[in-house]
Amino acid sequence: MKRKIFVGARIFDGERFHDDKALVVADGRVEAIIARNGLPDGETVTLEGGVLSAGFIDAQVNGGGGRMLNDEPSVASMDIIAGGHRPYGTTSLLPTLITDTAEASAAAIEAAKEAVKANRGVAGLHLEGPHLAPARKGAHLAELMRPVEDRDVKAFIRAREAIGTLLVTMAAEQVTVAQVRELAEAGVTISIGHSDCSSEAAEERFDAGARGVTHLFNAMSQLGHRAPGLVGAAIDHPSTWCGIIADGHHVDPKALRTALRAKRGEGKLFFVTDAMSLVGSEKDSFTLNGRTVRRERGGFCSKLVLSDGTLAGSDVDMVSTIRYGVTYLDLTLAEALRMATLYPARFLGLADRGQLAPGSRADLVHLTDGLTVTATWLGGEAA
């Protein structure tokens, strides 16, 4: 048995902190958190203070390391994207294909099948479109948007069976309640997003099995006192998870703090980056469906915009969202870490990730007290 013992840092197990303890990893899995006296035989990894946590999980990553998935939906692209985010603590992510052609979606599905098998940080696939609402298109191409058809339902179910974890963002206007129910029963994770729907339409789909909402507040019907919209339905529905982009540009911190206080039931808010190719890259622009997206520096982090000023994804990484949560959203460090680990794991059904419990994958990140990443591990091996 190949065993490693991590000592010297506070250990966050996904629920609480352990001080003056050691994390024991055996054959790539967490074995135990134990007292530091009487350690078992194995390689000792000594950390200089800070926090040792489960690696971060990002359910929405369009690009990184200079590569957009839409530019080349391949295994190589997925590996580059995962590698681009790993220095920022993300050890599991869903490469995300934004609205594109049927051919691009099929290529992304085929690539994800192989990338997941490689076990290098790609945990599944997120298809954000083409079943979105033109009225809330954001940076997506409205001309490619369309309703869900029966052939799409069958294709998504086959893809989920082959990949394991498939997240699909759909507008309530583009998918029927019956289709949501069939997909959810087959294990496809449905998130409602880029939608101008009523709160009632959203609730019907949540009750049918849609598990979440894609980037709460952005590209959706807003909360009104007589028309609560998708925002109101998501916050009020007790089982609905909500991804949030905490970068200082997509949502005002006052709105995020309000949502954090108001969210009802067991469903939680969790961090996503919605990152584009410039994370992990020194470039200042890239192309998206033939349009130039430029990096504008300033604020908590840079923002990415089209020529008309429309936000086009984010330039934030996952550890930065944790710092943002602690600094601007009144979150404890424990809750901010849960929003990057335990909660997205639960949303996606990744039972062996997001926590340091016996049997969990030893995907780890070490943070300084200032919340910068010093190292990551995949399956207990330095990455």
Automatic annotation (TrEMBL):
It comes from the Bacteria. Binds 1 divalent metal cation per subunit. The keyword Protease does not apply. Its EC number is 3.5.1.25. GO terms for biological process: N-acetylglucosamine catabolic process. It is an enzyme of class 3 (hydrolase). Residues 52-381 form the Amidohydrolase-related domain. GO terms for molecular function: metal ion binding; N-acetylglucosamine-6-phosphate deacetylase activity. Its cofactor is a divalent metal cation. The active site is at D274 (proton donor/acceptor). Keywords: Carbohydrate metabolism, Hydrolase, Metal-binding. Substrate binds at A139, N218, A219, R226, H250, L311, A312, G313. Belongs to the metallo-dependent hydrolases superfamily. NagA family. This is N-acetylglucosamine-6-phosphate deacetylase.
